[in-house]
Amino acid sequence: MQNDIHNDGDFRITRPERLERLYGAVAPPSTLKETEYIHRAYRPFIEAAPFAVLATAGSAGLDVSPRGDPAGFIHIEDSRTLLLPDRRGNNRIDSLRNILEDPRVSLLFLIPGIGETLRVNGSAEISIDPALLARFAMAGNLPRSVLRIKVASVFFQCSRAIMRSRLWDPATQIERARLPSTGSILKAISNDAIDGDAYDQALPERLKTTLY
């Protein structure tokens, strides 16, 4: 197989047939697990997830954004619809700008201690319906908007990546001090225009008071 793929001296894969020869046939469970709606077997994963990653695309570029709240923060409105509140952030709104231009989105749900992840592909629209915002009030504050996501496909990803990374293994956790602080990063990137020490000192309280 290796000779078949590399016999022209080009180590780039540029054609689907070469890619398929390299990786081989898809195992039947890998296709059978995909549904066009939120199957009852997949509901518990969404309801137990306190964290998800939202992927979007637009003419300005790609965006992958972390989203988190207490478990079940992404609501299942029905078997083909998810509701995702957009909490307070840095106001870059890269994901939302992309959705206005290209509604296609992908979600990756992660659950602490669980190896499998859940993937959802679909399309999103941005809503500021007051009744919908009120459903997602936290600490007396409403989200700025809510994404209504129409589901196109749902499937689980096996636990290999989590196992290889030892993501949930306490032994792999490192102390925050081993990496550059947010203030020191901003100081370096801004060529000292931002006072990194002052930023770091103010950050814990700012996070606490602006969480929602």
Helices and strands, with pairings:
Blueprint: H1 2-6, H2 16-23, H3 28-32, H4 43-48, E1 51-58, E2 61-68, E3 75-78, E4 81-86, H5 94-101, E5 104-110, E6 117-127, H6 130-134, E7 145-157, H7 160-165, H8 182-189, H9 196-209
Antiparallel strand pairs: 1-2, 1-5, 3-4, 4-7, 5-6, 6-7
Helix pairs in contact: 8-9
Write up this protein.
- The protein has about 210 residues and is of the alpha+beta class.
- The chain has three domains: about 1-25, no CATH class; about 35-165, Pnp Oxidase, Chain A (Roll); about 175-210, no CATH class.
- About 30% of the residues lie in helices and about 25% in strands.
- It contains nine helices and seven strands; from the N terminus they run H-H-H-H-E-E-E-E-H-E-E-H-E-H-H-H.
- Strand 1 (about 50-60) and strand 2 form a beta hairpin.
- It is globular, with a radius of gyration of 21 Å.
- The mean pLDDT is about 95.
- This is Pyridoxamine 5'-phosphate oxidase family protein.
- InterPro entries: Pyridox_Oxase_FMN-dep, Pyridox_Oxase_N, Split_barrel_FMN-bd.
